[in-house]
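Q: My labmate handed me this sequence with no annotations at all. I'd like to see what the chain might look like in three dimensions before we decide whether it's worth expressing. Could you predict it?
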Amino acid sequence: MFTHAYSGFSVDDAAAARDFYTGTLGLDDVERAVDELGPRGVRFERYEGTEMETDATGVFRRGGPPIAWFTDPAGNILSVLQAGRP
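A: Here is what I predict for the chain of 86 residues:
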């Protein structure tokens, strides 16, 4: 399953892209991704006291799509993002 990957790129048709990535590939369920990654040892970043403060599960839910950030072993910041609801 591809729910654990995130990549950013531009598209020329946002609706078609959303349908493809959510409907065809099933990539935008941030709740499920956070629930599955946590028990595997992924620790989600918390930005308490900032404009990017997350909820108890590590998901930021204000001012945009739900998103959760984490780091890989090299310290690169990655994320899972809910681009849209099908």
